[in-house]
Description:
Distance between the termini: 48 Å
Largest sheet: 5 strands, parallel
Number of domains: 4
Bound molecules: adenosine-5'-diphosphate, magnesium ion
Amino acid sequence: MTIETPQVQTLHADHPAPPGERLWTDALEQTRSRSPASFEQWFSSVQYDGFENRVLALTARDEFVRDWVKAHFIPDLLGHLARLAGEANQANLRVKWSISNRLERPVCQARRRTSEPPPPSATHGSGNTVGRPRSERPSRYSRAQLTAALNPKHTFPNFVVGPSNELAHAAAFASAGGGGPRYNPLFIAGGTGLGKTHLMHAIAHKVLDERPDSRIVYVSAEHFTNEFIEALQHHKMDEFRSRYRTDCDLLLVDDIQFLAGREQTQEEFFHTFNALHDADRPIIVTSDKYPQQLQRMPERLVSRFTSGLVADIQTPQLETRVAIVRKKAELEGIELSDEVAVMLAQSVQSNVRELEGALIRLAAKSSLTGRLIDEEFTLGELAMVSPRRPELMSVEDIQRAVCGHFRLSNTDLLSKDRHKSVAFARQVAMYLCRQRLKCSFPELGRAFGNRDHTTVMSAVRRVEALRQRDPQVNMHLEAIEQRLASSES
Ligand code: ADP
Ligand code: MG
């Protein structure tokens, strides 16, 4: 991503920066956007000395500054640098620190009161390639506020696409000008922790990257409501309306379900929507429900929401979850074997945020204890966090319980053996996996000796039907379920 302030562009035009310096400037901008105020504070005590041969040279005013910056900014910064430099892994990059209490060219100027004009060196200093922070743009709703609200990691390249989210991803990409039909509005619906906000941020990042002058407004519906109430109270409705209607080229509203029952805000949002829609400006909305399921939402708003494209995000399947774990590990610089990635993806099934949380916890524990993230360690950690969670149950656990009950070996269960008793046990196992783990049919087909998904589908239907009419089948199922319950506790 190359978001450039005008100051940076001027500097490049006057003094073409060496490639390392250019990468550094871009990586720095991305790191800054996460927490501009704290960034300014710490980087006024750090100096950039060069980036060559994968080594970033920095000088800190003292050890305390060095250690803080190392702990709180360097991982993120190196992540950006590695990506911009085309390095597969940020572990390939190194930082060489020096200490000096006399910094000639600190990355940021020391903190000033906002009423003071910026020092000339901030824009024209010879060595300082970092432009003035965006927060100094005159607008009240400046670019800095937008970038501070966006997670720099929530970009399109960092979003893993799978069958559960491909429509929402394609529509989001198109509405950011990425090609393909653009729908207005785009309504993204999906359960919590499945990537709706990630896609919103990705749209904003892409548009900012490609059209830096676009006026993008990204808010949660809750924030919209609060701002509206504040504007009413302080007689600032004109300002509020220009922000959302006239001064807005792209409106992104997250978690629209928050408007439920808030009639006055709904009314205001309805007019905002119409003004933008009439001007053919894109509106993207997310929600944890489909428009028709939104409670206490007026019909005219619901019909506006459905007038473009409603794209949903479902729970990702195992393959997508594994790819997400790998992507997150790569972004965080965590080394992970394929086995551990699969284990994690199997253990947390319904929420990507939780999946990510499990990975981060694992990495934190591993760095604290110095233990390698191998299968044994992962298993122990997962069990410790939630020993009784049904999500921890895997296809293998169910296969084991079924084999135990019918006195079969696992090889028999997964074999092509069509003998009646083996086939029945296999069908029961498939049924239980589908019922308890909500695995997809193709996923189950692979887990059961690479069978076709239609075979799994008919097995599940058969056992479902038998369960209703054959008490013996029911008895088998109950006995296996008891086995599973005792192995869970
Ligand atoms: P939601 O807004 O739907 O509740 P978020 O967008 O906040 O969910 O996603 C929760 C976390 O999961 C974020 O860190 C996000 O990056 C991650 N995430 C969700 N889906 C994906 C995906 N397909 N690829 C990569 N990361 C994802
Ligand atoms: Mg969200």
